[in-house]
Amino acid sequence: MKKIVGLAIAGIASACFADMVDEGKLALEHKSYSEAEKAFSLSCESGNGKGCYELGMMYENGIGMAQNKYKASNLYAQACRAHEALGCSNMAISFDTP
After folding, report:
1. What's the sign of the alpha-carbon dihedral 4, 45, 87, 54?
2. Taking all residues of the chain, what is their mean pLDDT, rounded to a whole number?
3. Taking Cα atoms as reference points, which of 33, 39, 88 lies closest to residue 61?
4. Helix or strand or coil: residue 6?
C-alpha cells in the first residue's frame, strides 16, 4: 500500500512540474522572461529534464537574461541526466563548439 501511495505522489509531482514547463513556455510566448525563468527553474530543480533543457536554451540564447553558454551547458547536462534527449544532444554540441 505504501508503494502505491508513493507512486501516486510521484506521479502527481511529476505532472505538476511538467505543468511548470508549460507555464514557462506560455510565459516565453508573452515575453514574460522572468516568469519563464522561474517556471523552468522550479521544474528543473524538481528533476524534470525538460525544464532544465528549456532553461538552458534561455541561457544559451540570452533570452531575457545575459547569455551564458557555460551555464547552458551545465543545464543541458542536468537535463541529459534526467533522460531528456534534447538536453543530451545540446550538451554534446555545446562541448564541441567554442
Report:
1. positive
2. 86
3. 33
4. helix
